[in-house]
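From the methods appendix. Each design record in this collection lists the tokenized structure first, followed by the designed amino acid sequence. Records were kept in a plain field format so they could be parsed without special tools. The example shown here is representative of the layout used throughout.

RECORD:
FOLD TOKENS (223 positions):
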């Protein structure tokens, strides 16, 4: 019997390949939602008080599904820290080929301080990690690894400036270590709302500390 028209393709979920892709996308979206929720809850109540149920409720998933993705809260904490770190500053170097290296470096330094609500949340997570790293070897290794990544991020920006002739040749690792240390110190005081320091003063002090070494003006660049 002849059909009235051409046979239409079945829905995409009938195709095994499409089903696999859709499932992978749903899994990735669920993990993303859980990790975002974990970052918010840990920053709000602290790791010691967090319960898996709290994260599940905040993410809008079942506790069973949460445990499917993360076997325990230690694993969830580590993944949440890595997630938070990965979300920070991903767009800062979007126009690195068209703006001065000093602007890129200033953007990075700006994002290494608690300059907005999202970064203040990141800072609360960092502070939780510092406390755990004093007692837990896994947390200590994670903290050192994340600092290594920050060091590499800074070093790449500084070397780009040296290669472009914008920065003076210098000991890049030494400058990065100084910048990380200063950012941590000023960041803690900003998180404490210390009345003796504000964001502008912190950024200016961090920049002045390395401006002479880099051979650039000691005024924090417009970003």
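DESIGN:
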């Amino acid at each position: 019997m002849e059909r009235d028209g051409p046979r239409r393709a079945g829905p995409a979920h009938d195709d095994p390949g499409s089903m696999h892709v859709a499932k992978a996308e749903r899994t990735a979206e669920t993990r993303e939602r859980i990790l975002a929720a974990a970052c918010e809850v840990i920053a709000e109540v602290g790791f010691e008080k967090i319960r898996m149920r709290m994260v599940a409720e905040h993410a809008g998933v079942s506790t069973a599904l949460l445990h499917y993705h993360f076997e325990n809260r230690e694993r969830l904490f580590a993944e949440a820290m890595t997630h938070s770190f990965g979300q920070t500053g991903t767009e800062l170097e979007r126009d690195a080929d068209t703006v001065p290296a000093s602007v890129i470096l200033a953007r990075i330094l700006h994002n290494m301080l608690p300059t907005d609500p999202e970064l203040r949340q990141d800072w609360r997570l960092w502070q939780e990690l510092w406390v755990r790293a004093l007692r837990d070897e896994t947390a200590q290794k994670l903290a050192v690894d994340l600092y290594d990544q920050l060091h590499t991020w800074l070093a790449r920006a500084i070397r780009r400036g040296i290669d472009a002739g914008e920065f003076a040749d210098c000991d890049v690792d030494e400058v990065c270590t100084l910048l990380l240390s200063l950012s941590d110190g000023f960041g803690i005081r900003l998180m404490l709302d210390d009345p003796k320091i504000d964001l502008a003063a912190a950024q200016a002090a961090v920049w002045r500390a390395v401006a002479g070494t880099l051979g650039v003006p000691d005024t924090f660049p417009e970003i």
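APPENDIX NOTE: Residues 1-12 have pLDDT under 50 and may be disordered.
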